[in-house]
Predict the structure.
Amino acid sequence: MQKESLRELYIDELKDLYSAETQMVKALPKLAKASSDPQLRQAFEEHLRQTSDQVTRLEQIFEMLDEKPTGKKCLGMDGLVKEGSETIREEYEAAVKDAALISAAQRVEHYEIAGYGTVRTFAELLGESEHVILLEETLAEEKAADVKLSELADDINSRAVQSDSTEAADEDEEAVDSKRKTGKGTSRRVA
């Protein structure tokens, strides 16, 4: 059946967001657990609470529309969650892993910001002022989460760079020690 109206598209996009948010409810605890930075862990835990509220807001909108929120899987979020899971499994130094987790989380936030901005505009066009209020609240939370991640990234990325410098210095020191032990790279005077 061909969908012909903006209302049908609006409902379809809301279902996509509902699927995305329910996937994030499952993924955020894993990101929090994988975080070594306490502030980053706390940010993920706080966003989990917000995400649960966002699911509830979407359910309210579906109730007002007399529609069911289920029936669609958000493939975009599915891919982002899979990438985040790969990041969790990577064996990075702690600050580098936290930087990678922030990168994965910000991709999610940008995806959600785009989705909520779109459905808010559709709600405005369709005259759904109660929906607009609920969607704007969620959109503001997603934008705030992105800002918080950016602020945390400033410090965490700096530590990740420092760990790279420390690691490189350690590798250089190990190479010098190895050369000393093997006698390679040292000058010997021949009599």
Notes: Helices lie at 6-34, 38-65, 75-89, 94-125, 129-182. Residues 186-191 have pLDDT under 50 and may be disordered. The radius of gyration is 24 Å.
